[in-house]
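To assess whether the prediction recovers the assembly geometry, we first specified each molecular entity separately, as shown.
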Amino acid sequence: MNKALENAWAGLTFIVMLAATYLVFMWVPNEKVMGVVQKIFYFHVSSAWIGFFAFFVVFIAGIMYLKTRDSKWDWVGSASAEIGVVFTTIVLLTGPIWGRSAWGAWWTWDPRLTTTLVLWFVYVACLLVRSALDQEEKRARFSAILGIVGFLDVPLVWFSIRWWRWTIHPNIIESGGKLAISSKMQVTLMVSLLAFTCLYFYLLPKVVRLAKHQSMLREMKEAIRGRLTA
Amino acid sequence: MIKAQAISKRIGKKAIIREMDLEIGGGEFLAILGPNGAGKSTLLKILSLLMRPSEGRLEINGLDAVKEAEQVRPLLGVISHQTYLYDALTASENLEFYGRMYGVAGLTERVREVIKEVGLEFSLHDQVGTFSRGMQQRLAIARAILHRPRILLLDEPQTGLDQQALDILYQVIGRLKAEGSTVVMVTHILDYGLEACDRLLVLVQGKPVFLGNKPETLAGVRETYSLAVSGVRA
Amino acid sequence: MKYWSQVRAIVRKDLQAEFRTKELLSSMLLFAFLAVVIMSFAFDPTREVVKQVFPGMIWVVFAFAGVLGLNRSFLTEKHNDCIAGLTLAANDGSAILVGKVASNLIFMLVVELVSLPIFFVLFDFRSKGSLGLLLLVVLLGTVGFVAMGTFLAALAVHAKHSEVLLPIILFPLLVPLLIAAVQATGAILAGQGFGEWSLWLKIIAGFDLMYLVVPTLLFEYLLEV
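The predicted structure of the complete assembly is given in tokenized form:
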């Protein structure tokens, strides 16, 4: 992306983010039962969306890397995995705060929350594997493989937790599953989702560029070392 | 017979092998020389099908090395500085394992035959972990020729070999060559082993800079080599 | 067929090596035994509540003992670069994976068959269901565990500190299988009816299929040098 476009995108992200913040804190009415705590919902859901979307990008980048062997896809995958981990961390931190006032418990083994937790483990592990591999090509290939396997595992995690919880505590799912949302809340949620999506696409090229520069730096160092020893 | 057409290997953005054409005839012995990082090992890995070329076409005995890999693999025997042997198994168990992998007929007989050729017939039932480095290397030679490969690929085979193992290696190469097998050897030692080869290939930065008949004397080889390498540098 | 004779050769080789060194089985068995004993200290076996978490304990011990074995299974292949030797000889790279999965499955089943009675004895647990069904669940659960575990062990072995890395990448991915295995085991041990455990068994079988197929398809990419 060129500089001007990137700046424009940064400006747009800022405006949408500001609008979302205004809607959440000034415009939308408080929820009747939960009060002001419910506002965390907008950030929570948006972060979850970005988390899942980021891991989907990791999956696609993994497939593309194995097909093309172009380092570009490895950078996209690793950048998206990092961003995804950050946003799922936000989900896992805001989830209990929301859950405490919605269900009266910090943590419930609700399929959504639990799947997010498992996902968080999977992708933190992916990042660990990356840092434990020295050779660039191998690191890219293995990360791609893990990104694919991890993403294919998501539905299994989701359904197994759902079936598990259905058989034992079916009512918890009910209480979290259906949310009566007013139209103002819907609008606010949509704008928040849009704002976070903008943020994701603002962050992604920056992290990709970082990965690219790291790799270029390594190549330069290697070249210099080669010159010195020759 | 090996025929490579415009093969390249890129890792990331770096080109290790650049559009190389190479033809190695049946029964020929080619030595590949070059400085560190020239892509010698990569080239040998491509020839042994451990690595896939990023571009280009590789033909071995008229078979496409990528599409018909199944038929090509049994034709190849590889000796590298790693032995590919299991420490916990005995010499005969190691050979029998590889024999089963390749589907060698008359396995027991064949194992005895190759173990004799490398002079380990008295250690047949000893665990490989107890072998000296030289003995392990000799067993690795036996492992590589067990399935009667038509093409022998050697990746710096001299590394860590003692004199006895070296003698056996050259004996084996000589016999295979006499039987019409093709031999390709990568080396960075401009000394022994080169007497027997027919042609030299000097590789610098993934490109052949010299390909031709081997000069008569070792001094001639050294001169050809340094001329070829310095020609690129200058 | 050549594919299966290669798979058989790899299994035979692994069994031969294990028979000689006994490294893998002895450490796995001892670990499993030790874990059962520690569990019985940690959770008083005389309390009724503990009976309810019994199926969970079984699978936790199996999983950790299994990782111990999986870690070793590719270390021997990495030593002397045997994995390259295998790749040179194997017509289809997935034969290597299938062979290693099969031998790891044998090792793990041995460990499970030995440690299950120890569990029952130390916890004085009386099963209300049939033994055959219990063994079926153990077998099915172990297939999935070993399939994914072997694949990731082959991946982790190239990294630094692979012993620590393997459980960290393996366990999150196996959460679905572990949930299903524990549920099925619990239902069978409690002597519940066909409807209670059959669904879980089907789920496990489905997961097994996923954990076998996806690694088989991706293994060629993992093998490249």
